[in-house]
């Protein structure tokens, strides 16, 4: 399995950042291949995504994954045993200040997978983190 980890600073308080990210329905906002995510009460999510198995033709696929959210630790973990894939996301506070406008947070995403080109995966994580920062900062 290849291991990947990326971080970004978001100019918003950690609670605001994690509040947005911990809602699985927001995943398509920053994961370009995801089209829809439906959370279920049993800790699973149904994901609809677009893949390009032959490198040219897009194919919409649907699958189920598990998702755990720890609000207190500002952490999420997810995975799919069927596809040998797992990941985690954490949000940490960078500034503990009285002025909310000064607060920043650090988002870290880590992935473990047996599939895909490592450089492509890292570039995808970078794009996802940039989209996360842009979405959250526009809302803050």
Task: Give a written overview of the molecule.
The chain is α+β, with helices and mostly antiparallel strands and 140 residues long. Helices cover 24% and strands 42% of the residues. It is built from three helices and seven strands, in the order βααββββββα. It has helices at 14-21, 27-30, 118-139, and strands spanning 2-10, 34-39, 44-51, 59-70, 75-80, 85-93, 105-113. A seven-stranded antiparallel β-sheet has the order 1-7-6-5-4-3-2.
What are its keywords?
single chain; 140 residues; alpha+beta; 42% strand; globular
**Which band does the percent of strand residues land in?**
35-45%
The helix/strand series, from N terminus to C terminus, equals EHHEEEEEEH
Provide the residue-averaged pLDDT. 88
Number of strands: 7
- What is the tally of helical segments? 3
User: Terminal Cα separation, in Å?
Assistant: 37 Å
Share in helix: 10-25%
Shape label = globular
Largest sheet: 7 strands, antiparallel
- What topology, given as strand order, has the largest sheet? 1-7-6-5-4-3-2
- Helix-strand makeup class: alpha+beta
Low-pLDDT stretches are none
| Cα radius of gyration in angstroms | 15 Å
């Amino acid at each position: 399995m290849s291991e990947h980890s990326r971080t970004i600073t978001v100019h918003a308080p950690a609670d605001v950042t994690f509040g947005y990210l911990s809602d699985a329905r927001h995943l398509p906002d920053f994961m370009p291949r995801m089209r829809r995510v439906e959370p279920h009460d049993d800790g699973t999510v149904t994901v609809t995504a677009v893949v390009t198995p032959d490198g040219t033709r897009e194919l919409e696929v649907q699958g189920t994954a598990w998702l755990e959210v720890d609000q207190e630790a500002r952490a999420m973990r997810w995975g799919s045993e069927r596809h040998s894939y797992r990941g985690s996301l954490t949000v940490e506070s960078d500034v503990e200040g009285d002025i909310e406008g000064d607060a920043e947070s650090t988002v870290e995403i880590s992935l473990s997978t047996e599939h895909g080109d490592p450089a492509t995966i890292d570039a995808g994580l970078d794009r996802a983190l940039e989209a996360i920062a842009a979405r959250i900062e526009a809302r803050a």
